[in-house]
Amino acid sequence: MSPRHLRTGAAALLCLAATTTLVSCGSSDDDTAGSRTTIDYWLWDDLQLPGYQDCATAFHRANPDITVKITQTAWSQYWQNLTVELVSGDAPDVWANQSTYYPQYAAGGQLLDLQPLVDRDKVDLSAYQPGLTGVWVKDGKRYGLPKDWDTMALVYNTTMLQKQGVDAGQLNDLTWNPSDGGTLEKVIAKATVDTKGRNGLDPGFDKDHVKTYGFLAEWADGSQGQNGWGDFAASNGFTFLDKNPWGTHYQYDDPKLAETIAWFKHLIDKGYAPPLDKKSALANSELLMAGKGAMMVTGSWTISTFTKPKVKQKFAFAPLPTGPAGRKSALNGSSDAIWAGTKHKEQAWKWVKFLASPECQNLVAQRGIVFPALKTATRKALAVHRARGEDVHVFTDAAAAKDGTFLLPVTENGTEISPIVQDAIQSAILGEASPEAALKSANDKANDLVK
Amino acid sequence: MGANTAVAPPHESAGSPPGNAPAPARPRRRRDDRKAAWLFLAPALVGFALFYAYPTVRGVYYSLTDYNLLSEPGFVGAGNYRQLIGDEQFWNALKVTGYYVVLNIGSQTVLALLLAALMHRLTRSVALRAMLLVPWLVPNVTVGLVWMWLLDANLGFVNHVLDALGLGTTGFFTSPDWAMPTVAAVNTWAYTGYTALLLYAGMLQIPQYLYESAALDGAGEWRMFTRVTLPLLRPVLALVLVVSLIGSFQIFDTIAVTTKGGPVSATRVIYFYIYEQAFNYFHMGYASAVAVVLAVILGVLTAVQIRLLRASRSDLA
User: Which residues does chain A have within 8 Å of residue B264's beta carbon, measured at their own beta carbons?
Assistant: First the structure.
């Protein structure tokens, strides 16, 4: 080998090494000292941390030999961090799970089946909001106890809508359909104002110079559209799956979904919502705060974002519009799960049982941040909000309404299907493909993954 | 240009000149030298074996398995590679990465050459050189965040100015047409200073008398640049190109912070795709296969580039 070849070879070897060092390492340690046990507990929501810290303190008071150490990691890093910890064999004993993400951990044998423990200790599963317990069951194995739930609603800037002559009462009975947009589209048009102060119904409205958009739509919403298109499509009669959870056939090629997406595109073409290619990369809630939009769909977990005293604008919540198939909100919950590899199974179960108990869920309710899964604790949280002067009943109404909710789709490979559907919807919104064609092809790919 | 681009100067002329000691018969002493050599080489060798050779072998092994991080890997032979051929996301990732590399290396090299030549011929101010390095010193994630806010379509300062000038606003990171050029421009901004300094160091090696005689012969600045600077800079330029090409292919952090592969896969570059496959979808085996293919592509590109630019020979020698 000539020196030159050697060098080339070495360079190639170097790049090879540089591109394959993806596997990370970690160390493990054991916190057990004598009869004292430390349970590692992970969650992602910083707003919920104080409530669960209250629970940990109360739990330690009742069980002095067990200490719960809570680690909070932001959503965007939560699952990657958890995976790395699992791979290195140093995972938390208990962690908060979400319905799209948990199937892959269940499939990987990382979650403890709680069913035998639930049976042994006779946990009353009927005390939770309906629909929240079944999501965590697969093939007779139970992978979590319900922690909290969320539903969706409209959030709007009251000052802006008032200025355009829309009163709050009107917003409680909005209708929507994909052909003319119903009364919702009229409100959105009115709420859209151009730089010269003309609203969307004015014949002189200039859609190229919009100051405030009537509606902020979410396009980075995975395969579920929880924050917009999913709820609207459901109220148009669309269902994601043949059966949920654990369906084996997606139905993204349903014309009812394509119609819904086409309506959103029409909203953009009219100038009532920001075009995707000229849209902020920041969250819609930031834009709403900055006065760039008048209304958007939001989830009950964001309530305090809009009601905290620091917020300058006045916001209020309204129910989602009633579509051809009724009013439909996504209902989603989270759970607490136990790692199959935990060294402290009984202590971890004690903590999970406590997290799902009235004692802890009432403490969480007291903070008025999230709705706990127990029906009694939900009522308590609602009362806390009311005492603070926050009107959030639309979220609990949505959860209580008959046929008013649908569960987010839970299948195998959910995390992988997410970007496929998101890309299809974005390309339809950008006008790169027709909604029908884009969704048909995405549906085929998604179905290949759940076969 | 991505993260770790360790740069070593080309060491053509280094090493001991042969035959300056007419070897008296002292074999024992020679053996001692060799021992010392191994001793000094040991840390580098151990590091190489532990952090490069071993992970490389393991990566190649994983690429032949269905490893999903959570359970034991099972051997699947060339299955991952077969899947890769039909994977349109993989080909799209290669395509958009190539597009990025062309935009980034093109703009970065031209700008850096220009800056280096200006520094070389006009000023040798240390303060100026230090300033050029500032963007390179900022962590990539910070660079991404700062530009994301500056260029934001609705709240960003740049769009505010553009709008005030009557040019309208642009979703720099959210438009499929603009996203990749924007990412490339941001990274060019961050790395041009560093590249310029490398080239400047190369220019300093060119003997001054060449410029003096060129000037005597009546050559202008442009002619001196094309006839003296560029040809004599070739070995350094080749090295800089190879290093920045490899770095550029490894674009990840700016994308992870700003576009996350979107809109509609317009910026789903190969490294981001590998990351998604490995840590979002738990397909570590498949991700390793993509990584191995990327490594082979880079190796071939590097070999071709070194050959084309005849980097191992300097015209100065």
Answer: 423, 426-427, 430, 432
